[in-house]
């Protein structure tokens, strides 16, 4: 298990977590000067870490071999959001309004879609892998059919949303606009409740299907009941605004992970049986950097449980794979232009997948 953090200073941090009976320990594992501009997003699956940056590139790291695999140069703007689906696919979105579907076996771009007229600010893959949601600066919430690689539904929203997230069971989702989190039901595609925070919301995470964790431009973490929208618990986690929150289940209890502009990454033990009581601190680490993004890399054999879209499906047959695999938009070995369709995004001449020679990426921390 490793805590992965990115920052304004263009550095990617890795801290190996050592679970213990009482207080855990997080020890420095690596630092890597990952990009030529600040990191904006990071995503993980059971093998890879992928980072996105304001330098318009995505960097790939193999966590098992501890090597840097290369860079993806498909986007023409800041890479704003990344999300894996199992071990085979990755979705990326950027300020160029483009959403890309990647095959993570060969790191090929299977589909490049002009998703929004403005920036793509956030995306989320349904636990089934058949749908995705995206929001952007064109004041729309869009539903995507990932089986066919096309738009399925467009809903206008009153303001620009900057976050969207599916619940673990895929029956509800949350759309965040400034300090408001609107709760939607998939069945009706309508809002059934709204959570209003005191300040701008920076990150949300479903702890369970009915409990949502919210952090923002303040020091507090708040847990809400999705049905009633009532605050179940709040606690002060940091000394500065919290940039991101993550969670996973391990050996019968939930672990919250928070990253703040104060430079600290903290892990908390949450007992759902005592949801009204603040969680206890497991460990903390000071990166001494201005953190911008966070992820938790878990080994495949780790005693953890994740939400469906973060786990690897090994039982699906090739014909049942939900994410599109038919049309290759770019190749690692060719500059040949593919045929374009109506939804394909325009590409700059050099925006093909670049797989560099594998090299040791990680500067081991002493």
Describe the structure.
- The protein is built from no helices and 32 strands.
- With 366 residues, the protein is mainly β.
- The strands form seven sheets. Strands 4, 5, 6, 7, 30 and 31 form a six-stranded antiparallel β-sheet that branches. A five-stranded antiparallel β-sheet has the order 28-1-2-3-32, with no helix packed on it.
Describe the protein's topology:
Elements: E1 2-7, E2 11-18, E3 25-33, E4 39-44, E5 48-53, E6 58-62, E7 67-72, E8 79-85, E9 89-94, E10 98-103, E11 108-114, E12 120-125, E13 131-136, E14 140-145, E15 150-156, E16 163-166, E17 172-177, E18 180-185, E19 190-196, E20 201-206, E21 211-216, E22 220-225, E23 231-236, E24 242-250, E25 253-260, E26 264-270, E27 280-286, E28 291-297, E29 304-305, E30 353-354, E31 359-360, E32 363-364
Antiparallel strand pairs: 1-2, 1-28, 2-3, 3-32, 4-5, 5-6, 6-7, 7-30, 7-31, 8-9, 9-10, 10-11, 12-13, 13-14, 14-15, 16-17, 17-18, 18-19, 20-21, 21-22, 22-23, 24-25, 24-29, 25-26, 26-27
